[in-house]
Amino acid sequence: MAQDVRRLIDFYKTPLGRIARALVREQIMALAGEVRGLRVLGLGFASPYLRFALEPAERVLAFMPARQGASAWPREGPSHTVLCDPLEMPLTDAAVDLTIAVHAFEHIADAEELMRELWRISAPNARLIVVVPRRRGMWAQRDNTPFGTGNPFSGPQLEKLLRDHSFTPEAWRDALFLPPFHTGLVLKSTRLFERGLRVFGPTFAGVTIVKARKEAFPAVPRRLRVERYIRVPDLAPQTIMQLPPKV
User: Fold this and answer.
1) What is the rounded distance in angstroms from the CA atom of residue 62 to the CA atom of residue 54?
2) H-helix or E-strand containing 188?
3) Neighbours of 198 (CB within 10 A)
4) What gap in Å lies between CA 117 and CA 120, rounded to an integer?
5) Each residue of 120-167: pLDDT tens digit?
6) Cα separations in angstroms, 57 against 36, 61, 82, 148
7) Distance CA 88, CA 105 (A)
8) Residue 156 and residue 162: Cα distance in Å, rounded?
9) Cα–Cα dist 217/232, whole Å
10) pTM for this structure?
11) Cα–Cα distance, 53 to 67 (Å, whole number)
12) What would you report as the CA-atom Rg of the chain, rounded to the nearest whole angstrom?
């Protein structure tokens, strides 16, 4: 089921949403590294995580799926938001150096076709950062946050999807170890949960984050799209109207 942009916006305005954004963005920035001069694309609802790239990057775009809806971003200046079909993005080949996908993969019906499209728009050696709900994580089990909808991924599932479509995983991160509850204990003890439960490995993680690099050649060619055939009725010429003979 596709997310609704209003629900996403409302979640990130809550205390738990602001904490989740800070924790996930911390990992994204560590994986992204230096973005100066890069062409950066945010896919899904990645705008809460893109502000760090606005100044140094050559350009930053936020592509939001048509079924989700879009909101203008950033609040100041011209909007960088594009409403589009993620499987047919309005970009030329090799147009992007870094793609950050958040609230995207778990809501795409055809993840393989999305990977082919990401390979097409990515420049040689471009990086792809994907954030997905962890299949066995607590955040995927509860629907009070956007991470609890859609199809969550396990690590091996995500790695296979990337490798099968010529993206080599380079680094893995986990985040959101705190429980997805809007309670005072959780909100006041964020770092305690995040650091304390991290010692158990990814068991208590809510999301999985991976950085992958584009390979030179596509592993799977794009599918041939079948043109829709629309039957148009033939236009038959009308016979000339016969006038009655003059008397």
Assistant:
1) 11
2) helix 184-188
3) 15
4) 5
5) 999 999 999 999 999 999 999 988 899 999 999 999 999 999 999 999
6) 5, 10, 18, 31
7) 15
8) 10
9) 41
10) 0.85
11) 26
12) 23
**Any idea what DSSP says for residue 67?**
T
Side chain identity, residue 96? V
* Beta strands across the sheet bearing 81-84: 81-84, 59-65, 39-44, 96-102, 122-133, 207-214, 167-175
Name beta bridge partners: 168. 213
DSSP notation for 141-172: H-TTSGGGSS--B-HHHHHHHHHTTTEEEEEE
Quickly list DSSP for 20-51.
Answer: HHHHHHHHHHHHH---TT-EEEEEES-GGG-H
Residue 75, SS3 per DSSP: coil
Q: pLDDT of 24-82, one tens digit each?
A: 999 999 999 999 999 999 999 999 999 999 999 999 999 999 889 989 999 888 999 99
Q: Helix or strand or coil: residue 123?
A: strand
Find out whether 208 and 153 touch, Cβ atoms under 8 Å.
yes
| β partners of residue 41 | 61, 99
Tokens matching residue 65: 């799926």
List Cβ neighbours of 146 (8 Å cut-off, separation of 6 or more): 3, 7, 8, 11, 45, 103
Distance CA 74, CA 77 (A): 7
- Which residue type does 169 have? P
Alpha carbon separation from 105 to 54, 88, 151, 191, 216 (Å, rounded): 23, 15, 8, 28, 23
The region that residue 201 occupies, defined by phi over 0 for left and psi between -120 and 50 for alpha, beta otherwise, is: left
Distance of CA 211 to the CA centre of its chain: 13
Reference 106, options 92, 78, 86, 83; nearest CA is: 86
Q: State both tokens at 59.
A: 């350009």
